Amino acid sequence: MMLNNKINSQINKKKSFLCIGLDIDVNRIPKSLINLDDPVFEFAKQIIDSTNQYAIAYKPNIAFFEAHGVDGFRSLERISKYLKNNYPNIFTIADAKRGDIGNTSKMYASAFLKDLDFDSITVSPYMGSDSVEPFLTFDNKFVFLLALTSNKGSEDFQESVVDDNSRKLYEKVINTSKTWTNNEKIMYVVGAKNTEEIGKIRKLVPDSYLLIPGLGAQGGNLKEICKYGLDKDFKLIVNSSRSIIYASPNDDFAKKAAEEAKKIQNEMELIINKL
């Protein structure tokens, strides 16, 4: 199934463009789960089971799994398989932010897109075309290219002016990426706090999906995001992580996560219905 069909069918069915980030910190998992064989997987499983009716995608943050070595990767693999086996129409994003010389990127791509079977991966474009193109060679797999992030350090490089036309570095990255082989598989990550910049990026790539992290705990405003980034084809994926998965520190965490996800979905549905 091609990307447009997979994501758009979920958006139309659920009236939502919500992605839930699985940034699972074992120190914030309810104590009742800690003594299980795989508390990270059990926490994720319950979050997924309680929120899948409101979400079109899930995005595990790979660093939170790598921090636990072999056990962490085992949990990640189980989560990926659980999503594929139980919710095959939901889109999956490995938030790995990889990007290296060609042979190394090829190995990263194989690990996340083939072995772990994620639908997509976040990639850093800093090393240029040969560091990204290996991720674009897999059938029905996609890349979210870091375009403009919302952390303070983004000002150091991404927003630097790079030519006489006052073009910023992130704009050059986007325009250059459109010349790469298999560039139709590229989508872009834009931080939620950069609402007016989202509008500029939407004009640069009108046919591409934008992944917007930072809704909720990081201060992103959904109405502002949609004002600048949402088009009639709904090529927008808005991520919320901590405000959903840590909605409660207690054993009712899954129930509270569902309530928080439903609140966001309800707001998204109102926005969709107005278009």
Give a description of the structure:
- It is a single chain.
- By secondary structure, this protein is α/β, with parallel strands linked by helices.
- Helix content is 46%, strand content 15%.
- The chain has 13 helices and 8 strands.
- The protein has an 8-stranded parallel beta barrel, surrounded by 7 helices.
- The longest helix is centred in the last third of the chain and has 22 residues, at 253-274.
- The chain is globular and about 60 Å long.
- The two termini are 26 Å apart.
Unreliable segments (pLDDT under 50, ≥5 consecutive)?
Answer: none
Order of neighbouring strands in the sheet with most strands: 1-2-3-4-5-6-7-8
Helical proportion, percent range:
40-55%
Mean pLDDT: 93
Report the CATH C-level class.
Answer: Alpha Beta
Q: Tell how many strands the DSSP assignment holds.
A: 8
Gyration radius over CA: 18 Å
CATH architecture: Alpha-Beta Barrel
Largest sheet: 8 strands, parallel, barrel
Beta-strand share of residues: 5-15%
Number of helices: 13
**CATH third-tier fold name:** TIM Barrel
Order of helices and strands: HEHHEHHEHEHEHHEHEHEHH
State the shape. globular
